[in-house]
Structure formats: structure tokens, C-alpha cells
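Q: Could you fold this chain for me?
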Amino acid sequence: MKIASFNINGIKARLPRLKEWLEETRPAVACLQEIKTQDEGFPAAEFEDIGYKAIWHGQKSFNGVAILADGVEPVETHRGLGIDGPKEGEGEQARYLEAEVNGVRVCNLYLPNGNPHPGPKFDYKLAWMKRLRARMAELSALEQPTVVLGDFNVIPEDKDVWSVKAMASDALMQPESRDAYARLLADGWTDAIDTLNPRGGVWTYWDYQAGAWQRDHGFRIDHLLLSPEAADRMVAAGVDKEYRGREKASDHTPVWVELK
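A: Sure. Below is the predicted structure, expressed as C-alpha cells.
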């Protein structure tokens, strides 16, 4: 069972690339972030045409997450983490969606970026990560194969970035961000990509600016965290790097894990 994550950076703009990836790699479950559309604008029929059923949690122009399943209906189990955005009166942003697919709990997230740092957006990021940890503790208690995946907007270690110096002041690499991520792992979750690539040097994001893709100036912020029950079933995990080099690509590339 192949479970994948892809920050698509605007589902309408990337729809041809997204369908291309789905048909070429055929993950059983595909979790999307930054769909950047309201619920009524989500192109569910486009995915139905190629055999995928979907649930989604949209928001106008920003954020938004979706879960696609090949040939089966994802059964929604949770939506949102109950934490308001950094602006007063903003309400909750569309950043979290959870479903069961073929006996596996799949939790799709788009974690706040946190820039500029310091400031209210960084405070929001840390508060969101704290709430995420609480939700993951609830999931652990279920003792069910669970994958928490998506764009975490955290570079876990120095080995996960092309240049530590270039990113030193970014919210993605602050000690507080890294500590919050490390706490998730310490609670018993397995970072699939890191486990199979312990030396690092694996990127999932390359900026559109300054020739980052052409120079391979990237970093790893898209992660797949496995509960013990899922980690026991892991047979492979990887990054579909080539999709970043295609025309009108997202600035992220898909990441995936395969469970037996």
C-alpha cells in the first residue's frame, strides 16, 4: 500500500501535472497540501475520471488539504485541530484532514510556515505543533497503523538542507521548530525518509527563485511519520524528485511510503 504526500501549490494551476503523477505512480492514497481553493472549487470529477475518490478541506486562495484514494472512498475521521489562525477573528485555517483508507489512518497536514520570525506567525506555528502532538498522542492510543504526513515546514537537522548558513534565520530551522518536531519522534513516531536515508542530502522542496532547482539548492520539509504499527510494515519510502523538473511544476516534489 503506497501512501504519498504532495504539496501541489495550487491545484487548479497544477492539475495536469498532478493527474500525470497520479496515473504514472498510482499511489493507493495521495495527500495534497496547498490546494488553494474553496470547497466548491475542488475538481473532484477530474480525479473520479482516473479512479480516485476524494475528501477535501478548502480555503479561499490559501492553504487547503485533500485526501485521494484509489478506487475506494476515504472515510473522514477528523477535520481541523481546533486552533485559530494568527490574525484576530480569523478562525481556523484549512490545514488538517484525517481519514481511514483500507484499515490505515492517514493524517494529512499543512503546518504553518512561521515566517517572519520572531512574531505572531511563528508563535502560531509552535502552538499548532503543540496541538498536533496532542492529536498524535490520541492516535497512538488507538494502536492502529497510522501515517501522519504532509508539509511540516520544518527542516529537522542540518543534513536536511543544502546550506545551513543560507537558512539560519528562517522559521523552518529555528531551534524551537526543530525541538517540536523532535518531540514527535521521541513520542514513538518514525520519520520514514530519514530512517532509510540516515546520511541526509534528500530534498523535497526547491524554491522558484535564484535557480534553486537547477543548482539543487533544496531542503527536506515534507515528511511521513509512522506509528509503530505502520513502521513495522514499512518496506520502502522515497521522493519522486523528477516531478519538480517538469513544466509548470510545484516547488515541492511528492514523497511516499510503502506499507505491506
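A (continued): The chain has a mean pLDDT of 97.
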